[in-house]
Design goal:
About 40% of the residues lie in helices and about 20% in strands. It has 12 helices and 9 strands. The longest helix is centred in the N-terminal third of the chain and has 37 residues. The protein is rod-shaped. The structure holds 3,4-dihydroxyphenylalanine. 3,4-dihydroxyphenylalanine binds next to β8 and β9.
């Protein structure tokens, strides 16, 4: 009987230390299993005088029932605790998603993506080039030697005598032509830099360059490409107009206007009453530039154009001041971004 009492006491002590279902399983086999303590106790019944056996047997069975019900009760408690712990650990707060504001693409990115998609549809390859350029690619290869007055057209940020922040995306024309032979159809969007800062000029802005080199390319090809682009960007009735201009890297050069998308050509404040908006510079690639890049100008010719993406975005979305594009005000993004 003292043994029974002693086992019960030890069991209770062990039970109070059990923290997991695994502990409980161990405890169960330690006391109630085949080679457990209670089984051993029952086996000892043989050594008792016959008249004591029934009482002893009944006591051991009583103890077994007690241990089993205590184990069951503790198992239920631990299961409940484990469930609670898992629910807490694995909790997902689905309401959190609502608190995250949606991101939106920048108007310049939207316009850039749209133009790239349209140009890719016409078979152009999209390239990107370095923002830090050498004097050679930014100027000399494009027929702008050191003493050329055209250098004054672009207020350059020089890093060293030879290195600068590219003032336009045109250097990619030279880089591309040096490496690939015609037929060439490529565009290059990217950031460009000039020392300029007011409502319509930012020291950093975006351009997209276009270049086609092949046999028998004409200004008419350039116009057709730009008409396709303009009608998709600004609407079907948009007309394209060429005006004579000058760029050292094109001959002849043109300034390209589109009918004003605000008034349809009647004249408004956006187009300053003219009905036209100037959007880009272009022309037939100057044979000097082809030769500078190792392309035979007696066999090949081409056209090129460069346009300001910020300006296109401002016209398209009615943004009055270029500085708004660089202020990082998320409200501007949400207004136009998808
Ligand atoms: N690079 C010129 C600029 O930044 C724009 C330009 C004009 C690019 C004529 C061209 C071009 O490719 O043919 O002002």
């Amino acid at each position: 009987m003292t043994k029974i009492a002693e086992i019960k006491q030890r069991f209770e002590q062990d039970l109070s230390l059990c923290q997991t279902l695994l502990h409980l399983q161990d405890l169960k086999s330690k006391y109630l299993g085949k080679s457990g303590e209670l089984t051993a106790l029952l086996k000892g019944i043989r050594d008792l005088p016959a008249e004591e056996r029934p009482v002893f047997g009944a006591k051991v069975n009583e103890l077994r029932n007690q241990l089993e019900s205590e184990l069951a009760a503790r198992t239920a408690v631990i299961k409940e605790e484990e469930l609670k712990r898992r629910l807490a650990d694995e909790k997902i707060d689905i309401s959190l998603c609502d608190m995250q504001p949606w991101g939106a693409l920048h108007p310049v990115t939207l316009v850039q993506n749209e133009i790239c998609d349209l140009m890719i549809a016409m078979g152009f390859e999209v390239m990107s080039g370095p923002e830090i350029e050498t004097d050679r690619y930014n100027f000399q290869a494009l027929n702008i030697p050191f003493d050329h007055p055209a250098r004054d057209m672009q207020d350059t940020f020089y890093l060293t005598d030879n290195l600068l922040l590219r003032t336009h995306t045109s250097p990619m024309q030279a880089r591309y032509m040096e490496r690939k032979k015609p037929p060439i159809k490529m565009i290059c969007p990217g950031k460009v830099f000039r020392s300029d800062n007011d409502a319509s000029h930012s020291p950093v802005f975006h351009q997209i360059e276009g270049l086609v080199v092949d046999k028998n390319v004409t200004l008419r090809d350039l116009k057709g490409t730009l008409e396709y682009l303009a009608s998709h960007l600004f609407g079907q009735n948009t007309k394209v107009r060429f005006r004579p201009s000058f760029f050292p890297f094109t001959e002849p050069s043109v300034e390209v206007d589109l009918t004003c998308c605000n008034c349809g050509g009647k004249g408004c404040s956006l187009c300053k009453g003219t009905g036209w908006i100037e959007v880009l510079g272009a022309g037939m690639v100057n044979p000097y530039v082809l030769e500078n890049c190792g392309i035979d100008s007696t066999e090949y010719n081409g056209y090129a154009f460069g346009m300001g993406l910020d300006r296109i975005a401002m016209i398209k979305y009615g943004i009055p001041d270029i500085r708004l594009l660089f202020e990082n005000d998320v409200r501007l993004l949400r207004q136009f971004g998808k």
